Amino acid sequence: MKKILTYTGILTVGLLIGWGIFGNTNEKEATHNHSETIEANQKWTCSMHPQIMQPEAGDCPICGMDLIPAETSAEGLNANEFKLTKNAMALANIQTSTVGSSTSKDATIKLSGKIAENEEANVVQASYFSGRIERLNISSTGEEIRKGQLLATIYSPELFSAQQELITASSFKEAQPALYKAVRNKLKLWKISDSQIDQIEASGKVKQNFPIYATVSGTVSEKLVEQGDYVKQGQALLKITNLSTVWALFDVYENQIELFKKGQDITVTAAAYPNKEFKKKVDFIDPTFNSATRTVKLRVVLNNNNREFKTGMFVEGNIVNTSSNKESSLMIPATAILWTGERSVVYQKTNPDEPIFEMKEITIGNQLGEQYEVIDGLKSGDEIVINGTFTVDASAQLQGKKSMMNKEGGKTMTGHEGHIGMEMSNTTKNERLKVSAIFQEQLKMVFNDYIKLKDALVKDDLNGVTKEAKNILSSLTNVDMKLLKDEKAHTDWMALEKEIKSSVGSISKIADIKEQRSHFKHLSIHLTSAIETFGINEKVYSQFCPMADNDSGAYWLSKEEKVLNPYFGDAMLKCGSVKQVIE
């Protein structure tokens, strides 16, 4: 037993010594191998040019400074990937969705349009002889008239002489029948009826004034003369429109033209009659392209016997797309896309488990409803940002990554465009600042005046724009900076207030609505930053039109989701889409 215990003890000591020697060595080797792995994954960047990512230490190829270990190397981010905090994701209401193939056939396409007169039913009532209008029986436009109704009476020196000739010629019509017939025909050319001519001949008296009767029934859409005016033979007196049928004219954008053809089924709805649908056919597609609005007109003829439709009324058309030859295509929401000139970009979430993003340039095709067809740049299964895209883009700019305005990544933007881009992204540096409710209410007054200015631009109201710009300046003076207790809040507001005042001041002094819209673009950017930073306790919609500012694109703010474009007004009222919701 003693020998067994001795041998067991010797064996145990030997095992402990062996583990101490070889186990420690293995641990060192594991540690060494782990260090080598970290070093292999280590990336090096420049403190001044964060877009630079090198696999090993050295000098910055731009400024020559020593490269430093990249903070993101442990996370393994690529050069143009960037990460957002979960808190920032929640504050900006950033939402993502997985891209998937969808059937483009039978997709509904929405069109915006207006009710217009049926030009084919328009008639111009003219005077058939020269003279002075002694009495005009039409007092205003909009009056309903019947065929044969007396419209006006005219004194005509020409007709006065012609009547005297008729009376004289009638006394020797047996001796000179050709002359008599010629005089009667002369009166007929002035649309004097046989019965009227017989009456003049029988009475032997010259009529001072002659009547003008309506040749058609309809509605007076334009009054071209007034009582007492002198008119020439053939001059237009009234424009008469038959409103028993009207046209619905829809705008079709350049990239949608191939989707439409004459005879397609279309469902027309009007805001005035939300529970009614009018199923019709496409009657005509204008062959002339409008280079200013980049659209063509699509026409639908609507029955209007009950006078439901009024000219100028807004309508919406829904057409089922059955013309696509593709079995399926990649579709993404319009809210996912940022436009800058000819470029279209989206933000892809590159890590399914972490809020890591990267900008992707894409090529888009036709718009089908609220979605766009993706021709190139994405594949089925990619996850992209569909709400809060603007905020994600701002973060990319701040971190020196590829972005909407900085397609190379990391380069410092120059000029006013770069300044705008950085101002737009300013509010993403920190979370929304906590400020007093009173300050938010004062800022809200500025925002309310901004909305009135935006509405004036929608109506092309130059004087209204100038007036509301002055009101914004007045509201700005009532914003009390002393209510801001935080030093950063002071600094941010001072910078934003300066830019807002500059933009609004320019708008108030300019008498050209095109230039006013240019400054309105900058005003919208800075006010967006202010609202994102301080909040106004109200939901705000950030909307975007890719065709504004000579196809550079421009944003604006709205209280409602409905798009009313302040950069084009009536010419392209509904061009644009919601890009972000500021809660």
Any idea how many domains?
6
Shape: elongated
* Number of beta-strand segments: 29
| CATH architecture type of the largest domain | Up-down Bundle
Can you give the helix content as a percent range? 25-40%
CATH topology of the largest domain: Four Helix Bundle (Hemerythrin (Met), subunit A)
Oligomer: single chain
Unreliable stretches covering 5 or more consecutive residues: 34-38, 411-430
Helix/strand class:
alpha+beta
For the termini, the CA-CA separation is 83 Å
Major sheet characteristics: 9 strands, antiparallel
**Spatial extent as radius of gyration:** 38 Å
| Overall pLDDT score | 80
Concise overview:
The protein is an alpha+beta fold.
Written description of the protein model:
The protein has 583 residues and is an alpha+beta fold. The chain has six domains: 1-39; 42-76, no CATH class; 82-103 and 330-424, conserved putative lor/sdh protein from methanococcus maripaludis s2 fold; 120-241, OB fold (Dihydrolipoamide Acetyltransferase, E2P), CATH 2.40.50.100; 249-321, Beta Barrel (Elongation Factor Tu (Ef-tu), domain 3), CATH 2.40.30.170; 432-582, Up-down Bundle (Four Helix Bundle (Hemerythrin (Met), subunit A)), CATH 1.20.120. The protein has twelve helices and 29 strands. The strands form six sheets. Strands 3, 4, 5, 21, 22, 23, 24, 25 and 26 form a nine-stranded antiparallel beta sheet that branches. A seven-stranded antiparallel beta sheet has the order 17-16-20-6-15-19-18, with no helix packed on it. Strands 7-14-12-9 form a four-stranded antiparallel beta sheet, with no helix packed on it. Helix 8 packs antiparallel against helix 9, helix 8 runs antiparallel to helix 11 and helix 9 (462-477) runs antiparallel to helix 10 (487-509). The protein is elongated and about 170 Å long. Mean pLDDT is 80; it is low at 34-38 and 411-430.
